[in-house]
Design a protein that fits this description.
It contains four helices and 17 strands. It has a 17-stranded mixed beta sheet that branches. A hairpin with a 4-residue loop joins strand 6 and strand 7. The longest helix has about 40 residues. The radius of gyration is 25 Å and the shape is globular.
């Protein structure tokens, strides 16, 4: 009887051990797929460099080491882009958005969901954002679900139109609109935006609301175009019609 009891106890222990091992295996598999899905999402490619001039660096997920960018180099959310002196870059995103970056600029792709919400953070420098008209219309109709913003240290410029410049130097941000309308506000006063229409600009200082929009001379717009557009940049309409076709790769 004593032997039989010991045998039953061993069977119960063995069964419990097998159940525990099976449970641990299931948890391990579940965690593997969870982290794999998270990693895939975190590294989702949202665009590529369509033009590079000079030395342009990309820090994946904002971390060292920095890689040297060239035409076709991919871009993902959370990547940090730096242009050195006498350098420019152009990025075309899968949804047709185009970002042109001037020299000595530091740009962070803070958030990017293709065809949805996009937040570009500018720590220093100058850039031009070109948004397809159909996407701009979706933003205007449903700003809660769609947006395209350039954020500087102290200001935000959100698309209501299709083409504008943003720059930040010292404690001053500037937004110049070429086409459409851009809503601009100081991060310290988010409930007090100004609407900047085509051909106008606003200036945002650290502790002040955006200035009343005023006409910007055509020479200034041309200067910003020269500073942000790489020599090898392709025509805007061509890039937006089929973003990936012209840089040698498909999504």
């Amino acid at each position: 009887m004593r032997c039989k009891k010991r045998s039953n106890e061993k069977t119960v222990i063995a069964t419990g051990a097998r159940k525990t091992a099976a449970l641990l295996l299931c948890c391990t598999i579940a965690l593997f797929f969870l982290f794999s899905a998270f990693a895939a999402h975190a590294t989702e490619v949202v665009g590529k460099f369509s033009a590079v001039e000079g030395r342009v660096e990309v820090m994946r997920d904002g971390k060292f080491p920095a890689a040297i960018a060239s035409i076709g180099t991919t871009i993902s959310a959370n990547d940090l882009i730096k242009t050195k002196s006498d350098s420019k870059a152009e990025i075309v995103f899968y949804d047709g958005n185009i970002l042109r970056i001037a020299q000595r600029s530091r740009i962070d792709i803070s958030e990017y969901a293709t065809g949805g919400k996009a937040v570009i953070s500018m720590h220093d420098g100058k850039a031009e954002a070109i948004v397809p008209k159909q996407l701009a219309k979706r933003i205007a109709v449903s700003p809660g679900a769609n947006k395209f913003e350039i954020r500087t240290i102290n200001a935000v410029g959100g698309v209501r139109g299709t083409d504008y410049f943003a720059s930040h130097e010292g404690d001053v941000s500037r937004f110049i609109v070429k086409e459409g309308v851009v809503a601009v506000y100081n991060l310290a006063f988010p409930d007090m935006p100004v609407l900047v229409t085509a051909g106008n600009m606003t200036v945002v200082k650290e502790d002040r609301q955006p200035t009343t929009p005023e006409p910007v001379p055509s020479e200034i717009i041309k200067e910003y175009e020269r500073e942000t557009t790489p020599a090898s940049s392709l025509p805007q309409a061509m890039l937006q019609k089929d973003p990936m076709r012209f840089i040698g790769c498909n999504k």
